[in-house]
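Exercise: predict the fold of this chain.
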Amino acid sequence: MLLEYDGVATTNAVDTSSIAVAPASTTSANAGNIVTRASCDLVVGAMANGHVINAHDTPGPGFAEPILDEWDPAAFLDNVATGVSAGTAVSAQVAFERGADDGWVATQLAFRASTSPPLCQPVRLDFATAPQAVPANTCSGVTTIASVGATGTPTITAGGVAIALDGSGVTFYADAACAFPIDSVVIGAGASAASFYFRAASAGAMITAKGAGYPTIAQ
């Protein structure tokens, strides 16, 4: 499916975003709350529900439903009729008309208008969590990298930052059980942080992270 809109910024188009998966069997899909930073954002939500065939879903307050694929089914929502001013809390929601389901995933993105001023962008990356003393061959606790603005506080990146992870004898993972290895993480467009876990062959190993256009950081 393809949706095309006029009036969206052509660079750094994403103001902020969110994503959620079903925490349990629910009667609606909710992409989670976001708070817009720019004026007159276009908020577009998407939901896929793989368990209920021929579903007929109802968009939440303030949203319209331009497309519904009843064979996946997937629903695309937007608030094109109203727009969202800066500082507005938004949550794209879809109610399931045919009962609860636990197989959905939902996301929403707030796109800046072409007339909105440029957003403040991160100037560096930094570890948001303290160094950990982890025994050899033991899965660490969560490690988080944040994109930081000129004021020294976490700043949302409108374009996203891919971050390569490295360390001698260190393996990185996406999950707390260290079952799914990775070699990079992404601070997504509209987000300000990304997290991972690691396991080292020896205690005291150093880990490094490098995002394109940013200095290497180490811990």
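Check your answer against the key: The CA atoms of residues 55 and 98 lie 6 Å apart.
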